[in-house]
Fold this sequence. Notes:
Elements: H1 17-24, H2 31-34, E1 40-49, H3 50-62, E2 66-68, E3 80-88, H4 89-99, H5 106-121, E4 127-129, E5 132-134, E6 141-147, H6 162-174, E7 179-183, H7 196-211, E8 221-224, H8 228-237, E9 241-244, H9 254-260, E10 265-268, H10 286-304, E11 311-314, H11 323-331, E12 344-345, H12 351-356, H13 366-379, E13 383-386, H14 389-403
Parallel strand pairs: 6-7, 6-13, 7-8, 8-9, 9-10, 10-11, 12-13
Antiparallel strand pairs: 1-3, 2-3, 4-5
Amino acid sequence: MPRNYNVRIITPDPRLLPTEVARVGPDEAGVPKILPKGEQYIIRMEGVRTPAANILKQELLARGAAGAVSRHTPAVTAPTTDVLIFANLTQLQSLIRNLAEQPYGLAALGAQLAALLDNLHRSPVPLTCGPYTLPLGQRTLVMGILNLTPDSFSGDGIGSDVEVALQQARVFAANGADILDLGAESTRPGSAEISADQELARLTPVLQALLDPVRGVRLPLSIDSKKASVIDACLQLGAHIANDISGLRADPEYAATVARYNAPVIIMHIQGTPATMQQNPHYDDLLGEVIGWLREGVSIAIAAGIVRERVIVDPGIGFGKSLDHNLELLHRLGELRSLGQPILVGTSRKGFIGRILGGVPADERIFGTAASVALSIAGGADIVRVHDVVVISQVVKVADAIVRYQPSSPLSPGGVGGGPSEVGYEHRLSRPRLEHRRPYRQPRRSGRPHK
Length: 451
């Protein structure tokens, strides 16, 4: 009988690699060189000049990596091409060092590659919201929705009833909510815009009640509005976070207004407006367009004076997206990590869940919401925005325990395979930076051209 070697694959999770390498027992001096080779990347870049793409492909091949370019690139019959890179971390580090010395814009491209690796390896820092500090990056945060509209798509609109809003907020606070998101203007497909005065008439009494030291709740309060005047009034009253479905595009004063209060901002992607967004939405490159649009929004925020660590991105599930668009965004959610920003996902009771489940109404989509929330966390979501806080908080805890699981350190007293700590999983729910990861910085150019 031939020997059974138990050949199998290992989950390509960098957090697991140190333990798996330790089980094999290599020379410790070689481990730092081995680990980066386990981090595999597929990277896309757009509009690379054809001569630069030819050099880039040669440099990749020289390192045992690979690159895909347009078939017109070798003959230089097209001015530019998109490029796909297939490489591990060691190969990328070497490539970045070499690109600093190359012409045709390759030095700038290398700098952007270095920034991408920094973004992918960046751990979110705690989020300061006025007097509150949220443990962003240590566990998934739950944002509970308070709909102060009479016409919410989800059927949970509470209008301007302050007592009902307070009661719902207290239930959310007692059952795992980290943030409350107040919205007073419906953004369901086909909805019409209301005035800032109407919006504030709904928001102000509830916001004041929630901030009351006796009647209110002690949670950060987010305001879901795209109007700078509304955000200004609410932040002045004491709200803590601005949530803009237009991604800082609807009101040119929005970003500067948020910056004056040093508040966090949520930038969401949308195609069109709520009134038009579901009228045959179309994308040539869904992920590329969404990420590019959010990247521009982050730049707008930073240019206005908002601290980068306080800019949160949201792919805008259901906002100018077909069923296929929503599914692809959630399936590829991890690609938004390219931006290096905390990610918020709002799938709660959305129409795409109803379509998948055969047309069930919004208030019967809790199990579909639970599935989408769990998989969003697996894809890298840092915050989930939900209606059903009591149930979804439990979903989040279990999903976090699985997704953020870390094996015991191979250097710990128990050694490899020591099993979970007696303390439980809570102390291991963060997504730590691996020891071999370092920020990637461009070396100085020597002026030596490509040969």
